[in-house]
Amino acid sequence: MKKNTLFSMVAFLALGMSFMSCKDEENPTTVPSTTTPTTTRLVATLNGASEKPTSTTSAATGNFVGDLNTTTRVLSYTLTYTGPFSSSLTGGHLHRITNANGTGPIDVQFNSLTSPITGTTAALPQAKVDSMLNGFYYANLHTTLYPAGEIRGDIKKQ
């Protein structure tokens, strides 16, 4: 009987010790309650005065709102505008600023010129994401009279 009691106590202690060893206080498995957002809101106000290298006197205006997911590197955007424009719209894009005068090449082509203009990019290279986050992009709408751009807005973090 003493042997069975001793064996039972040893088994009970061993079982208790194994449950206690499962708790890992130094490396908790819970996710912290605060997480870093992966989406950054980008905005721009478009007008003729902001056009570079030469401003215009266009009465047209616009607003750009974009959400840049920094994990997937995908930009979803909406650009709305109101006229009147000086002439017919011929193009609309996002440009990456690469020149000292604040201009640069087309980087994201708009698929439509009808307001609201909406779109989503494919995954962008990290260098382009970094440039967007650091203010090196602008939205631009071009017309027949102003082929270099009638209204423009520099894209900034909101």
TrEMBL record:
| The protein's name in its UniProt record | CHRD domain-containing protein
SMART domains (UniProt xref): CHRD (SM00754)
Q: Which InterPro entries match?
A: CHRD
PROSITE patterns the record matches: CHRD, PROKAR_LIPOPROTEIN
The protein's UniProt keywords, in alphabetical order, are: Signal
Where does the UniProt annotation place the signal sequence? 1-23
Taxonomic source organism: Spirosoma liriopis
Coiled-coil spans in chain:
none
**Which residue numbers delimit the CHRD domain?**
38-158
